[in-house]
Design goal:
The structure is a homodimer of 230-residue chains. With 230 residues, chain A is α+β, with helices and mostly antiparallel strands. The first copy, chain A, contains eleven helices and eleven strands. In chain A, strand 10 and strand 11 form a beta hairpin. Chain A binds a DNA duplex (30 and 30 nucleotides) through helix 9. Chains A, B: This is CRP/FNR family transcriptional activator FtrB.
Chain lengths: 230, 230
DNA sequence: CGTGGCAATTGACATTTGTCAATCCGCCGG
DNA sequence: CCGGCGGATTGACAAATGTCAATTGCCACG
């Protein structure tokens, strides 16, 4: 691993306050692996052996049941995933695959659990991070149960525009991934975009333009308790 | 608070391993309150001031957005709620109301956060509990995105039957609450029950009978990564 | 022993979402 | 420059879910 990779990981909320020895030990025992796109990194139902940190590229977390599959989230640099499973020494609830050429740091689960006992600041950061993930998942449930597909898309677009401080958005992944992330079929996503045309959303390929955020917001009815950061 | 109430709370996974002083301090500063049915205990968007423990009765956690509302979970004795908001000193993402006459222990959020710094075993329990809640929320998302309404009902019934080790279930709350918990309208729940009649589910009022769990399971396709305990 | 009130159910219909098939379109390799 | 591949879109239809209104049924209260 390059030194500045380590520095970037060190700056993650999860590691920023950890003691030097704790961080050094975690990184020392970790593997930094490179993967081409489309590789399955972990499978639901496997034992949680590693905490994963996406250093470069893009990783899709997804879940299956029977024949059905849905995208749970997209992890980009620098983000971690599967923390909860690692901590409780449980099996993964989600699978992961690379969407792009990626570098992933894999920290042995055992080391993470060990660090809990020895580094108070790290433990505190884990608590914060878990609580954050928990709350994100609750928001996800709220969005799924309280909104229609078109509304979820509209709010997703508004969030993106907000984050990028721009009215022109370039989708960071394929539309079929977005459709699954939002909990619908690709066909339905196309129709949702058609609906949003009447609210000032135009799209050409992966480039989406919002003519008037206020108009779109009137339709989307964004809610900080669903869409807000954190 | 009666001494055996304290003992029951003490036996919760969240408190079982805490030091005696930690637990004593938390309980000393807590309020035990009684509420009639239908009382709103907390409101989304309020600051998280207390960790709540349901000692008696039944509490519904629900969320709203605009005019819409959905039930997020039902908390029965002895269970806690709103841990994540308390820990991150954030606002509540969910509201809570009593469904029955209830007793609720309210522990000041500040004390809970203080205890994190001073009691390692308690902190460890908090991590475990948070991870558990996180994983439960992820399972909820999976259920919502991967299953139809009738399937969610079928799996809910199977889970109940499993937990009670009986083929006869008495609904612990009104059907409209169940419908909202499962993410559908009351009308749709009725229809879902009608669908399950063909799979051996008969209902008279709040009493549901499963003629053959295997048959029902063939329809429900239960999945430990969605329905399993934890 | 009625009877009012509320939850639950049912029917009719609208909306949303999914499925299947055909077509379009952009990009890349020959 | 031409195919050809895969993702995206569109149309037609089916299934799932929501909405509205009417009815049923149960229970508590007078």
């Amino acid at each position: 691993m390059r030194p500045d990779d380590a520095a970037v990981i060190r700056s993650l909320p999860l590691f920023a306050d950890a003691r030097e020895e704790t961080f050094a030990e975690l990184v020392r025992t970790a593997f930094l692996q490179r993967f081409p796109p489309g590789v399955t990194l972990i499978n639901e139902n496997d034992e949680a052996d590693f905490l994963h940190v996406v250093v470069e590229g893009q990783v899709e977390l997804f879940a299956t049941s029977g024949e059905r599959e849905t995208t749970m989230s997209i992890v980009e640099p620098v983000g971690t995933f599967i923390l909860a499973a690692v901590l409780n020494a449980r099996i993964y609830l989600q699978s992961a695959r690379t969407l792009q050429k990626s570098q992933v740091l894999m920290i042995p689960a055992e080391k993470v659990r060990d660090a809990l006992g020895t580094d108070e600041a790290f433990t505190r950061a884990v608590v914060t991070e878990l609580a954050r993930g928990y709350r994100r998942a609750v928001k996800e449930v709220k969005g799924q149960k309280l909104r229609t597909g078109a509304e979820r898309l509209a709010n997703w677009l508004l969030q993106r525009a907000e984050a990028e401080r721009a009215d022109r958005i370039t989708l960071p992944f394929e539309k079929r991934v977005l459709s699954s992330l939002l909990g619908m079929t690709p066909e339905n996503l196309s129709r949702a975009f058609a609906v949003l045309k009447t609210h000032g959303v135009t799209s050409r390929g992966a480039v989406i333009t919002l003519a008037d955020r206020a108009t779109l917001a009137a339709f989307a009815r964004p809610d900080p308790l669903i869409d807000g950061p954190e």
